[in-house]
Design a protein that fits this description.
heterodimer; A: alpha+beta; 5-stranded mixed β-sheet; globular; B: 164 residues; 10-stranded mixed β-sheet
């Protein structure tokens, strides 16, 4: 049996489709962020929620919001109706203001999420900071944008979305 | 335990307290023709009351539900003296559930979404949306207000296509 190198890091790459970029862009999530990747399951739409919030799923006795990052970044585009292929359950850094419970969020993936093992050295030195596409920069969730050969990765902060602050800001801007 | 009426509208299951449900009627505009009252389409009820027709499938933006499902019945509900007729798929059914078991919406949902959906009941694979009746029955008036606002904005546009 092959043993995992102690310096090896597992990352998850969620493909992003950006209207203003032809690049191979992925959202990068760390092993600590990802709770589980689950297959198709019914997502219950919540009336009057923004297009990027696809609804809720029941997960281990809790209701989790499902977000579609493609729609969040391409907001002026028409909303897609395709069922997500996978759902990525993520930990966030936010806690429920009412209960104090750590909040999780589910990200819908229209295509399969890639799992990649990288050396810690590669993760630290192999990615060069880049200017992000406009749609991603304007999304308000981006923390960083990097290039590694032909692959571009974005680090995103979903805390505002899971807390509802993001929806309020969008509502204020869009009206 | 509480008894809820389950209505399937646009692919979603809506749960309404049984006490709010007046009845279910076949949606046949030739037999019972909706009339317009104060700019709202209303269905005359046998009691003499008028139920405002509200097609939730059309009102909800970004709905992912099955918009092609036939809505052959009206669900007539009442709350605080107001009546509403909602087209739905199938005749609906009654279920018993503990209202206190309902989950609140996650904090990600705010505004009107949060006001309308008071909770979500999980029943195996089904997620049942519990409605806030106050908000639900005010939807037709709000939709009419938005329409009127849009029309008035259109009228205010100058003749050269709205360019300033």
């Amino acid at each position: 049996m092959q043993e995992r190198q102690p310096s090896e890091v597992r990352i998850y790459l969620l493909p992003l489709t950006l209207a203003d970029s032809e690049k191979n862009v992925f959202c990068l999530f760390s092993q600590n962020q990802v709770v589980e990747i689950i297959g198709r399951r019914p997502v219950q739409h919540i009336p009057f929620s923004p297009a990027y919030l696809k609804g809720v799923v029941s997960y281990q006795g809790a209701l989790l919001p499902v977000v579609n990052l493609d729609e969040l970044c391409n907001r002026p585009q028409k909303s897609g109706r395709a069922q997500p292929k996978q759902l990525v359950v993520l930990r966030t850094g936010a806690v429920d203001p009412a209960t104090g419970e750590p909040l999780k969020i589910v990200v819908a993936a229209s295509t399969g999420v890639r799992t990649v093992k990288l050396s810690a050295q590669m993760l630290a030195d192999g990615f060069d900071p880049q200017e992000p596409p406009l749609s991603l920069a304007a999304s308000g969730i981006m923390r960083g944008f990097f290039q590694q050969q032909a692959t571009y990765v974005a680090l995103v902060n979903l805390d505002q979305i899971v807390l509802g602050d993001y929806a309020q800001e969008v509502h204020e801007v869009v009206g | 335990m509480n008894t809820f009426f389950l209505a399937q509208i646009g692919g979603s299951l809506f749960g309404l307290k049984k006490e709010c449900v007046v009845g279910v009627g076949v949606r046949d505009d030739e037999r019972v023709k909706p009339v317009e009252v104060d700019g709202l389409r209303c269905l005359p009820l046998p009691s003499g009351d008028q139920a405002v027709v509200c097609n939730l499938q059309e009102i909800f933006p970004h709905g992912e539900g099955n918009r092609h499902a036939a809505q052959g019945y009206y669900l007539i509900v009442t709350h605080q003296g107001r009546f509403m007729a909602m087209p739905m798929t199938g005749k609906g059914r009654l279920v018993m559930a503990q209202e206190t078991d309902a989950h609140p919406l996650p904090p990600a949902f705010t505004g009107q979404a949060r006001r309308l959906t008071s909770g979500v009941l999980v029943n195996c694979n089904d997620l049942i949306l519990l409605m806030n009746m106050d908000v639900l029955l005010s939807l037709p008036q709000e939709a009419r207000g938005k329409d009127a606002g849009a029309k008035s904005a259109e009228k205010q546009l100058p003749d050269h296509g709205g360019r300033r």
